[in-house]
Amino acid sequence: MRIGLLLNDFGTHLDAVVDEAREAVRTGLTTGWLAEQGGWDALTTAATLGPRVPGLAWGTSVVPTYPRHPLTLAAQALTVQAATGNRLTLGVGVSHRHVVEDQFGYSFDRPARHLRSYLSALVPLLHGESVRHEGEALRAVGSVTAPGAEPPSVLVGALGPSMLRVAGELADGTISVWAGPTALARHIVPTLTRAAEGAGRPAPRVVAFLLVGVTAEPEARRTELRRRFTRVQEIPSYRAVLDREGAAGPADTAVLGDETTVERALRALAEAGATELIASPVGTPEEQSRTKELLAALSSRT
Length: 302
Description:
Blueprint: E1 2-6, H1 14-27, E2 31-34, H2 42-49, E3 57-60, E4 63-64, H3 70-84, E5 88-93, H4 97-104, H5 111-126, E6 131-134, E7 139-142, E8 153-157, H6 161-170, E9 173-177, H7 181-198, E10 205-214, H8 218-228, H9 236-245, E11 255-257, H10 259-271, E12 276-281, H11 285-300
Parallel strand pairs: 1-2, 1-12, 2-3, 3-5, 4-5, 5-8, 8-9, 9-10, 10-11, 10-12
Antiparallel strand pairs: 6-7
Helix pairs in contact: 2-3, 3-5, 5-6, 6-7, 7-9
């Protein structure tokens, strides 16, 4: 299972993100993931950091679709490819009702329909094709010219059955959040795989995002995480996947403990069908350093 690091880019100076990315390379990790969380723009950050940190591949987890037309996003993603030497995985997602309607002012009606229409335009555009898409959710007419930029792999932040089916049919896989081995093995992997097989596509990538911490005080860390992520468990799509996992909240899906415990838990994720991991290290600075060292060691074995 390939292991990448979620870079801590929220509320930090961009130079600090560069330093963290370089530290990841020194540790032995090979993929840096960037989120969209009301701070730096993930794609612009990847284009900025790529030439300064040549040892990393880059991923977005995830870019919201509603604020960016497919023609715009295709141009952005291909620009990142040109800037980074074609090292981008483009993760996209519909976000959530409270973001799309309350912050962006768009309708969140039938988000799976929107995603299907969006990907139907975006994926051909990334492959240099001219598009004339007249879908129920959007219209896209045109093409993007980006010499030397290869089409990035496209993943979808998908948790529910409808979204997973769209991801399997039209994208290269999914990025799951708060899904442990139970939700992966019983719901996410089989739903996504069936959709990909039905569409005649290759076996999909299954990228799991989880909090990870090598620590001698797992319960203390879990208590801290419960306070930190209280509101997350109230978001409907997250609540549904947490219920599938049998978890009260995100803290209950965190991988915490000594090196042996963490390694065993990550092996269970791989056995459940995860092909990759986005790890967000938690704990004290010393614990996070130990966590990154373990993640790099485990990643090098695969």
